[in-house]
Amino acid sequence: MKLIRYTHAARTTIGVVDGGHAVELACLLPDAPTSLKDVLAGGANLHQRIRTALASSTVRVPLSAVRLEAPVPDAQKYLAIGMNYEDHAEEARRAGIAIPKTQLWFNKQVTCIVGPWDDVQHPRASQKVDYEAELGVVIGQRCRHVSEADAPGVIGGYFVANDVTARDWQFASPTYTLGKSFDTHGPTGPWIVTPDEVPDPHNLEMRLTVNGELRQKQNTGTMIYNIWQQIAHLSTVMTLMPGDLIATGTCAGVGIALNKFLQPGDVVRVEIDRIGHIENRIVPEP
Predict the structure, then answer these.
(1) Which end of the chain is more exposed for a tag (fewer CB within 10 A), N or C?
(2) Distance between CA atoms of 62 and 65, rounded to whole angstroms?
(3) What is the pTM of this model?
(4) Which residues pair with 21 in a beta bridge?
């Protein structure tokens, strides 16, 4: 399934995609949850009820008539891993940046989250705004101390992410949090694709373009630490909750390596096989 949060006729609600249409969840189930976090937490039984109801639903709206919003705007945590693709680590090494010997994690503060088509602000305080195409994972079940073998079972789905980064702020501090957390620097979407539609998340092509120019292209199978290892590592430290977001790393071709930073007016598109795409215009901070 593709789980969506969308606005239609000045009202924002949640639903599922059926072909080229949006179907409101409340029209499918009288006791439907009101947030995608609760849909994810509902697990396999709820998801099967949704699929069964969807087969006989006649109340739907064309996707072209709705605006897709950030699927999980109220995540408790948005965690991201750095230097997790071999080619990206190599371009960093050539630039003299030390390569971590273990998983390198940082926070993107949840106030950065915006939708798949929303504008991304170019902060007045930064001169080096960069892009990072990433496969996103959303946690579906509360969990702690998850083994690599059990990690697939706690995943609620996948989404497309752009880990927008203010590089000058990122490298001005021992931690990356400030440089990763400017408002609007977390576009996500266009929906949450449940795992049944993604047989192998480690075999997806990921692409990023700026104004139509291809900047990044790589297969998710070239991650240094795969998704199961990431979840096992994180859950050793903290309880992961339904709706928590994880950005699984970016590949080579980032702007800092090419000395091509984003400017107001640029349009950034990130696309991942089987998941979909997001597209955001860079605008000056008001």
Answers:
(1) C
(2) 5
(3) 0.97
(4) 18, 62
Residue 178 buriedness (CB in 10 A; 0-12 / 13-18 / 19+): middle
Delimit the domains of the chain by residue range. 2-68, 78-284
Determine if the peptide bond prior to 190 is cis (ω within 30°): yes
The string of pLDDT tens digits covering residues 231-242 is: 999 999 999 999
From the list 261, 270, 231, the residue with the least C-alpha distance to 248 is 231
Kindly report the backbone phi and psi dihedral angles of residue 86, in degrees, each rounded to the nearest multiple of 5, phi listed first: -55, -45
- Cα–Cα distance between 1 and 181 in angstroms, integer? 30
- Please write the tens of the pLDDT for every residue from 131-177: 999 999 999 999 999 999 999 999 999 999 999 999 999 999 888 99
The answer to whether residues 113 and 70 touch, using CB atoms and an 8 Å cutoff, is yes
- Residue 240: how many CA atoms within 13 Å on its side-chain side? 29
How many Cβ atoms are within 10 Å of 226's Cβ, its own excluded? 17
HSE of 278, CA atoms in CB hemisphere, 13 A? 32
Show the tokens assigned to 185. Answer: 């620097």
CATH superfamily, with its number, for domain 78-284: Fumarylacetoacetase-like, C-terminal domain (3.90.850.10)
Residue 43 CA, distance from chain mean position: 20
